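Same chain as my last thread, 242 residues:
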Amino acid sequence: MTFATDRDQMPPWGILATPAWVMLAFLVGGLATILCYAAWQSNDLRSGLNAFDGVQLTIGVLASVPAEVAVLAAAARLRRWLALAYLAINIPRRGEVIMAVACVIAVTIVFNALLYVTGHDIVTPFQIEAYRTAKDAGWVPGLLLAIVVLAPIGEEIAFRGFLYRGWAHPGHEPLAIAVISLVWAAMHIQYDWLGMAQIFILGLLLGWFRWASGSTTLTILMHVLVNFEAMIETAIKVEYLS
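reply #2:
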């Protein structure tokens, strides 16, 4: 099921304009984060920002994602598209959902097995510290909302939605998927090289489903499942294995 677009819609934003819009969206999202954190701290930023702090992370996601999505939706409207159509927010087929869930389960098992046999911790220090600091402040429900729901929505709309629309020209979809996955993985500097490699591979999988299904909604669902599984592992590690 897809949404109709305006009859006078223009071509998607081009190769250079597309990432420019995404960077603007991230800039606006970052500004929203700073303003919200300043308001929460009564305009006192002397304590500084800590990317591993669960409360700050939660505030950042809650503030930045709506701002980023608003910028990208506005960019779509400037090309005279319905924002939902430009970003491929639609209802995927049941068979696609079943296959996507099965692939997420399989990839999660493979990734965890790879971490285990190579002697790496399945739960990263970043995950542990974010969870612990959120727990100490009573912010675990907010962290769950931010990481499991809002973060996947924001990232998928930016990468598999907006960037894909501008870069995945007919016949060049595999190249676009690979480049988008590389950019997406490079943003996750909180992880080591193996974690970033896994994110790159996950990006390839998400990109393929975006291509095959024509639905960013489907990749959002997949991303939600991945983050939910990671949060369960983190909770078990902190609550029962520490």
